[in-house]
Amino acid sequence: MPTVSIWQSTYQTLPNLQADVVIVGAGISGVATAYWLRKTRPTLQVVVLDAGDIAAGASGRNAGFLLQGTANDYATDVATLGREVTRHLWQFTLENIALIQAETDDTAIAYRQTGSYVAAGTPQEAESIQYAAALAFEDGFEGQWLPPQIANARMNAERFHGALFIPGNGRVHSVKLLRYLAEKSGATFLPHHPVMRYEVMGEDIVAHTPFRQISAPVSVWAMNAWTPQLLSETKQWIQPIRAQMLSTAPSSVELCPAPIYSHEGYFYLRQDDAGALLLGGARHLHRAAEVGYEDIINPQLQSDLEAYLHNFFPAFGAHQVLNRWTGTMGFSPDHVPCIGRLSAHAPSWWVGGYSGHGMSYGFRMGKLMAECVLEGTAQELHYFDVGRFTT
Ligand SMILES: Cc1cc2nc3c(=O)[nH]c(=O)nc-3n(C[C@H](O)[C@H](O)[C@H](O)COP(=O)(O)OP(=O)(O)OC[C@H]3O[C@@H](n4cnc5c(N)ncnc54)[C@H](O)[C@@H]3O)c2cc1C
């Protein structure tokens, strides 16, 4: 967050605002919360503030995979969270996809239900994917294990030890999705309004930006990785982790239209309809470096991405990289998103810690957050309540 001088902060250029709900952060969490608030109560005055613009953060910098499931595999979640919680969390992400399909226009958001592959980079990974998939199938989730020859042929790849194909998954243009929802919500979006601090005045919470103050009886802090910068109470739950991606010039070589995840999610790629390849990951090879908020390209990591492409997708051949970019993710201790009440203002909430999977929760999470704002609680809140770490 850039600093602001005393002169800038005391020369107010815009009138203060009063809203029914103020949301800080216009990523998928904030936009979806605004969407569901206004859908439930169309007369509600909802103001969404962002330091940048809609989709300035991770929501506009990701791979656009819409996947079912958490950041862990099913077996890991069963072992750490229990079977029932795991089943509900995975169901929650399935609902996320279904709600996006129901509430948006596929063409406007470039959504395609392509299915997705979880590819095994090693024989051990093939075993653990199949073990986790068997548990998920028992709980009613769909998928099909493909042996190495078929999997590699379907992905136009080499060297994978099989892959799990999940038919219900898909891909989206992330910025188009957020812009579509923001417009349809009818909420007021104020870009370039960084919140520097907040204070509680009477019943209201007041968000201070360099230009104006926005007051409301309820607020939602949807800044994901940046949450600890303003809400120090969240420091123990949310850690900023950098992810890096690249995209190539369009190619006539077709890999496959579906998103591919491999090496426990540490490599991920998809090809768009024009043939450009989007590839991300390799963070596990640079763990110590890829922490924090800086938007810096790591050349060694980027060359690891290209080596992966060359090794597992040699058919893609020579390619020109047109874009390289980073995004900041918020990681939680158990890789499940966190929700809490603001300690200084009980009607207000914060949400974050998606651990690199926020597009797979975000739209459904906005519905839950809207319920929290309007009802003071939500049926599924306990799966995400930060109190799980202390009870
Ligand atoms: C490279 C990469 C690839 C990914 N791929 C996928 C994927 O394919 N599928 C998937 O499900 N997930 C993916 N993710 C994760 C996903 O993008 C995030 O989990 C999700 O976007 C988080 O959404 P959010 O709204 O909580 O946070 P963000 O989108 O980060 O939004 C937070 C917003 O808060 C604003 N903000 C911060 N501080 C302030 C302040 N002080 N005042 C006002 N505004 C502020 C920021 O500008 C930002 O717009 C990926 C992430 C990255 C980085």
Description:
This protein has two domains: 6-60 and 175-235 and 335-389, FAD/NAD(P)-binding domain, CATH 3.50.50; 107-169 and 239-329, D-Amino Acid Oxidase, subunit A, domain 2 (D-Amino Acid Oxidase, Chain A, domain 2, 2-Layer Sandwich). Helix content is 32%, strand content 24%. The chain contains twelve helices and 20 strands. The protein has helices at 6-10, 28-40, 74-81, 83-103, 106-109, 123-138, 148-155, 174-185, 227-230, 299-312, 358-375, 381-384; strands at residues 17-18, 21-24, 46-49, 65-66, 116-119, 144-146, 163-166, 170-171, 188-190, 197-201, 204-208, 213-216, 218-221, 239-248, 260-262, 267-271, 277-281, 321-331, 338-342, 345-352. Strands 6-7-5-15-16-17-14-18 form an eight-stranded mixed beta sheet, sandwiched between helices. It has a six-stranded mixed beta sheet with strand order 9-3-2-13-20-19, with helices on one face. A four-stranded mixed beta sheet has the order 1-12-11-10, with no helix packed on it. The radius of gyration is 21 Å and the shape is globular. The structure holds flavin-adenine dinucleotide. Residues 1, 24-30, 49-52, 56-59, 61-65, 194-195, 222-226, 230, 243, 245, 280, 327, 329, 352, 354, 356-360, 362 line the site of flavin-adenine dinucleotide (FAD).
